[in-house]
Design brief:
This protein is α/β, with parallel strands linked by helices. It has 3 helices and 6 strands. Strands 1, 2, 3, 4, 5 and 6 form a 6-stranded mixed β-sheet that branches. InterPro entries: IS701-like_DDE_dom, RNaseH-like_sf.
């Protein structure tokens, strides 16, 4: 059965963990406390259940339909990254064996959430035709250092817990700004006879008769 594909015939897989909550089964073995959202008004909760790691195929377009390819239950002593690596390797090898991916096709894209160690997964799956895309954690700060408050009185969002991180694949930005003296505003485009105009200083502005009389009275 053919799998959904994106533009160019590329397969896109997603890996995630979904809990099967069983708070009413006190005698069930190997249950874990699953971190869930949306079941309390002000905070998340920990509910006993079994977490399942699954691999699914994404469909293009504005749809939420997915095709589940495999699911593995996580035990109390299982390493989530090791289980995910074995699950992804088995799914990709089966897709190649049944002809869903052939030589010359685009690499299979695997999308993961911020909780996965994408760097480790990319290393252990380097022998497979896959590309991993992971979401960056919210506490990663990839920007220039925050300016001192004397130069930036409006402030800004400081880093939470992480230091400034530089992406090796992106071009580095400019050096941190230094305080500059305010420049007079200029016109948007140069004039044919007068060039780029700027407002004159207040001391050099032509004085009206009323302003001249006030200056002489002083």
């Amino acid at each position: 059965m053919p799998r959904p594909r994106f533009d160019g015939g590329r397969l896109v897989l997603i890996v995630d963990v979904s809990p099967w909550l069983r708070s009413d089964a006190p005698c069930s073995a190997e249950r874990l406390f699953c971190h869930v959202y949306g079941r309390a008004k002000t905070a998340s909760r920990f509910i006993p259940g079994w977490p399942y790691s699954f691999v699914a195929v994404l469909e293009p377009g504005a749809t939420s339909w997915t095709a589940i390819l495999d699911a593995v239950r996580l035990g109390p002593v299982d390493d989530a990254t090791a289980v995910t690596e074995a699950d992804l390797r088995g799914v990709v090898e089966r897709l190649i064996a049944v002809g869903q991916w052939q030589a010359g096709d685009p690499d299979i894209v695997i999308v993961s959430d911020a909780g996965y160690d994408v760097t480790r997964l990319a290393w252990v799956l380097r022998d497979l035709p896959v590309e991993l895309v992971g979401r960056v954690r919210s506490d990663r700060v990839m920007r220039l250092p925050k300016l001192p408050r004397v130069y930036d009185p409006k402030g800004g969002r400081p880093p939470k817990r992480a230091r400034n991180s530089a992406s090796p694949t992106r071009r580095r930005g400019p050096s941190p700004r230094s305080p500059r003296s305010p420049q007079p505003p200029t016109t948007a485009r140069p004039r044919r006879r007068h060039g780029i105009g700027s407002p004159p200083d207040s001391d050099r502005r032509p004085k009206t008769p009323a302003s001249a009389a006030r200056a002489n009275a002083r």
